Amino acid sequence: MLLAYDGTGFRGWAAQRDPSIRTVEGELSAALERICDDPVKLSVAGRTDAGVHGRGQVTSFATTTSLAPERIRDAVNAMLGPELAVRSASDASEGFDARFSATAREYRYVIATGDVADPFTARFVWHRPGPLHVPSMRRAAAALVGERDFASFCRNPGRGRSTVRDLHRVAVRRDGDLVAITFRANAFLHQMVRSLVGALVMVGTGRLEPDAVQAILAARDRSAAPRIAPPNGLTLERVFYGRRRSS
Q1: Which entry of 6, 18, 37, 49 is annotated as an active-site residue?
Q2: Which of 32, 55, 73, 99 is deepest in the core (most CB within 10 A)?
Q3: pLDDT above 90: residue 246
């Protein structure tokens, strides 16, 4: 299933032990179990954090139901839409898994730099008044591309877990008062994108030199990085399957 959701009212993707805590997985699993009359265990391409949105999230599950995928899609949307919507649903090929079959994920972070926040987009952007120097941000972003140890730009994943990721692409674009930063990688660490955005914004304001990003990477220490950006500007845009996408 291809999902889109407004993450504002959810405590992230992952279901919690306390059923009163609303999560995307918890709400979707409960709806699917009612529709399919079957226990449902979801696999997901990206475990988005609290307040983070999805436009191209992918999830998969096994079921014995005889309902057509389109019927399941429509039933979920009637129960959970428009906060959470199934954009499309189909039968998966043998061995497919939304998480383990994915070869890349793409996130987009949007910053609004105008003086006044727009109430119609405020849930989906970081309103941060003041200019950002995009060329400097692009220069800093170039140092992040490739297979790197992003220990400085994530929460500790736990003992023995790798913090190396292959960042395929970072693009910084301005459209009027909006600055959008797109990241594509084989996978992302917890809070990695928000941490990278925090550093790039510091570069854009001139409070951090573009070359400083390399020193932060080399430190492999979370305390070396600037404060992370808030979650509401971040959206999981696309998930790729098949061969690696580099552009």
Answers
A1: 49
A2: 32
A3: no
